[in-house]
Design goal:
Strand order of the largest sheet: 1-3-2
Structural class: mainly alpha
Order of helices and strands: HHHEHHEEHHH
Distance between the termini: 38 Å
Helix content: 55-70%
Radius of gyration: 20 Å
Length: about 150
């Protein structure tokens, strides 16, 4: 029969508030809720915003490179890109060098959204109500954790 010390250690290990996964999950939900009205002004969903940020950094990426950058598989990314293409934010084109490869390019409409989106990080920083360096440290810690969790 387990001792009361073992039971309480097991109980603590299973408490919801002690779970990193739940802290990350619930924070992600809160962030998405924060972004929703900011992105509605741009007529973007949060996943679309992520695609736009990557393409604002580097236009003309292949679909596979875009998926790797966003940690999305092609089954998720392709319908997303198709909707964005229908909204005239981007275009998908077969690579001249390799027809098997599809590259994604911003349209003029997609590039113009960058000016409007430039205000979003300041809104998020204000809502977080903590110093920028603290947020940057937290971002780096979460990125390092993601890298360790996804390493082979």
């Amino acid at each position: 029969m387990p001792s009361s010390r073992t039971i309480s250690a097991n109980d603590a290990a299973l408490r919801l508030d002690n779970q990193l996964c739940f802290a990350l999950y619930s924070t992600s939900l809160a962030m998405t809720k924060l972004y929703k009205p900011l992105l509605e002004a741009l007529q973007l969903t949060y996943p679309q915003y992520l695609v736009m940020m990557v393409l604002w950094e580097q236009d003309g990426l292949s679909v596979s490179a875009l998926g790797e950058r966003l940690y999305l598989d092609s089954g998720t990314l392709t319908p997303l890109l198709k909707r964005m293409e229908q909204a005239e934010l981007l275009s998908r084109q077969r690579s001249v060098a390799d027809e098997r490869r599809v590259e994604v390019f911003l349209t003029a409409k997609g590039r113009s959204l960058k000016v409007q989106a430039a205000r979003i990080p300041a809104c998020v920083l204000a809502a977080a109500d903590c110093p920028l360096d603290e947020l940057m440290d937290l971002t780096q810690q979460v990125q390092a954790l993601r890298q360790r969790l996804t390493a082979p």
